[in-house]
Structure to design on (263 residues):
């Protein structure tokens, strides 16, 4: 049955001597949904993304549009899923635009698209992320934040059905954080892409995403619309901080941290 849903049921994943995620099930995610994966350090957020990307052994029932993702070969899975790691590898002798064009070329979607069209597409993605001016810069001469934006451009241009982003805004100034969240949410809506983004910034999650998945010790602690999952109660129970979510003068939700609960 096709349904454009990402379903995760009974997922188990981890490392050779340590299982981190032990039977995780999430409410289904619909095409076009942007979900933030949040939770304290070591909760298993990266492990979850890497398991879904096929970079770690995993068992369980994970389906997109009725198709079992965990049973696919890497090549088959790459048709559906793109994973953006926390950092780009160093030592790649390409310009920014060449690296984005290459990312599109290696995906199955653009193998026979004319060169001029591929370049125009790459340029449009760079503009959208506010880094059009870096198109001809060598990758190895970029700052940490600029590298993060290029890595996102390489991921978005492939137009995956499922985009997995590991802390896509961690190195970015506020303006570029907005560029990223805007580009990701717009692309999700226009292309029907499902995005799972690990975010530590709960305010970005409150402001931009459709769903929040809160993990704690490899298990689901809360899931739902941002203001249902990020509450004074969940901040206390899973982050051990006293805090609250309040609306600012413009009606936007913000999380305020009052202090630690235990020293
Ligand atoms: N290669 C590894 N081998 C063994 N254990 C690992 C490995 N990588 C991570 N872990 C453990 O798995 C657990 C979850 O790590 P993970 O990186 O998924 O957490 P996270 O929620 O992404 O954390 P953070 O917010 O700090 O990035 C941690 O306890 C960590 O020590």
């Amino acid at each position: 049955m096709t349904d454009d849903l990402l379903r995760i049921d009974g997922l188990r994943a981890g490392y050779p001597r340590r299982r981190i995620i032990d039977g995780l099930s999430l409410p289904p995610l619909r095409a076009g949904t942007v979900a933030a994966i949040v939770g304290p350090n070591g909760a298993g957020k990266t492990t979850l993304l890497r398991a879904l990307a096929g970079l770690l052994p995993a068992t369980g029932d994970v389906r997109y549009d009725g198709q079992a993702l965990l049973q696919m070969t890497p090549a088959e899975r790459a048709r559906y899923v793109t994973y953006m790691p926390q950092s780009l590898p160093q030592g790649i002798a390409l310009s920014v635009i060449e690296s984005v064009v290459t990312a599109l070329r290696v995906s199955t979607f653009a193998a026979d698209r004319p060169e001029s069209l591929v370049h125009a597409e790459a340029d449009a993605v760079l503009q959208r992320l506010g880094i059009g001016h870096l198109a001809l810069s060598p990758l190895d001469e970029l700052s940490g934040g600029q590298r993060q934006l290029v890595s996102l451009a390489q991921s978005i241009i492939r137009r995956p059905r499922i985009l997995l982003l590991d802390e896509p805004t961690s190195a970015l100034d506020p303006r570029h954080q907005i560029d990223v969240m805007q580009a990701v949410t717009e692309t999700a809506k226009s292309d029907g892409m499902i995005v799972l983004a690990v975010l530590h910034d709960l305010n970005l999650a409150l402001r931009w995403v459709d769903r929040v998945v809160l993990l704690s010790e490899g298990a689901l602690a809360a899931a739902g619309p941002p203001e249902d999952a990020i509450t004074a109660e969940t901040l206390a129970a899973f982050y051990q901080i006293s805090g609250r979510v309040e609306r600012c003068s413009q009606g936007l939700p913000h999380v305020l941290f009052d202090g630690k609960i235990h020293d």
About this structure: The radius of gyration is 19 Å.
